[in-house]
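Re: your question from the hallway

Yes, I did run it. Sequences:
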Amino acid sequence: MTAAPLDYEEFLTIVAACTGVPLESLRTDDPTLTIDDLGVDSLGLINVLTEVENRYDIRLDAEGLTRFPEICALINEQLRPAPARTENSVVIDAPFDLLWDMTNDVANWPNLFSEYATAEILDQHGDTVRFRLALHPDDDGKVWSWVSERVMDRGNGTVRAHRVETGPFEFMDIHWAYVQIDAGVSMRWVQEFRMKPDAPLDDTGMTHRINANSKVQMALIKERVEAAARANAATAVAR
Amino acid sequence: MAPNGLGTKEFWAAVLEGRSGLGPVTHFAADGFPVRTVGEVFADDTLPGVDPRLAVQTDRWSQFALLATEEALADAGVRPQEFSPYDLAVITASSSGGNAFGQREIAALWSKGPRHVGPYQSIAWFYAATTGQLSIRHGMKGPCGVSVAEQAGGLDAIAQARRALLHGDAALVLTGGTEAPLSPYALACQTASGRLSRSADPERAYLPFDAAAHGHVPGEGGAILVLEDEEGARARGVEAPYGEIAGHGATFDPAPGTPGASSSGALSRAVRLALADAGVRPEEVDVVFADAAGTPELDRAEADSLSEVFGPFGVPVTAPKARYGRLYAGGAPLDVVTALLSLQEQVIPPTGPGTVADAGYGVDLVAEPRAARLRTALVIARGHGGFNSALVVRSLTQ
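Structure:
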């Protein structure tokens, strides 16, 4: 659970100290009252903003904001930590096309990844696919399921995906990149996300979980794709 | 707003009594300063009675003026909203601006960086800030300005206010001046003059015209006055004005050591200019409120000027500031207030107990309250750096 870093009452204390407007007047129940109405001029507002900027080492652009609750919300937005980010990669000794095709065949993911029980394609047009994934039941028997959309760019060897039904995430953005190197193809997964305050895991917990699981899944994918590559090579030789 | 009395009534009582407002520095630890005795008005940093919205954006010196103005307007029965804003002017004096405010912000600049300098620095430290705040607060949009000439500036501001009225540029002017010169930076600047008393004894620290004179005591505060032309004042029902500002003269000292330079010559000329402006002969002056610098050389120069114009022992001279200090831009307006009250009460307030004029000066220094027939008073103010100003104040009752 992440509370707002600067609660409104504390913010008003700063305003009172910086403008001389008594705290009681600032604690108005009338949401229509503007900064001006409360007797704070432009210099007073600058004094408040620089005090907050210096206190938290942030920069605020309050241009156009006319009420203190809006400004407090702006401050809290600025005070939020950066989104969580994970990055994992693996080098797979297989032809680029084979790796690309196998890892972008979403319908077949339950056979490629060990974590997915089902993958249902909801919509596909061009390089964009929308699909529903479901995990195997967890220890409590709960089945986690969500909808994602994936946009594949074969020319650049990149894929962008994001969760459409975000579930416990506030948002989840995924970026895959495939790069041909001497030892094979490097496949890199970068995920950026923020958990919802009421999610069972916080950002740090989810980061650990994704890092641990990515290693497992990448090892599995490497094993399966390289096996397929060897099988293809054997077939080619047999011909 | 004086160290020995807050508000006109209390100040006048203190002045008549010779009550001292001098004491040790309590605003800050002044151990490293060559000053032991000062005249403080309030011991607190924030002055009671100042709207907190204004307190955050003003220096102490402006706050003195804000408070004094409330009393002045009430005393004069002036409601600014009943005038056209352009008929109301504000002309004050300041000798050093918002010292403490500026020091605080400069400290933030050099210790933490430019982002830590507050926006109010832009409106709080400079000399015109007080005039500006008074103008804003009371909706006074006529000719506004500030006079900067150390102690002499207080008289120059009142003279400028008088000109604005005589020229018809305004119907009413808030004028006078205040000073808050007891912060560390402000005191550091004053030490350069070499005129500060180092005495720790409040009773012996400031002894103008005394053989034991050895400098002055700096004090804080000042006075704000409501000035208007007589016709306008009578028209809005003023029955008992304190008096009139009858004349003014100002000169500047020649550079020390230049041919013909005499320490008293320029001052004598300022006095004569003021008398001429008021149309009074020297013998018509009933009392002189002296600049009373409190150093032998400057006391000698002022005494010589008075002897030149009035003859030795030719006029009663008083310096009530010996009991509350030199307030720089605030000092002379306070002297004008004292002079006006003297005319009203027909009594000359004393320089204070303890000061015994050196007979060699030829000055009739008033040591005890002296009843007299008073109609015309001369106020003298000299500012460090060469400023001389003299103002004639006259009673309007016969």
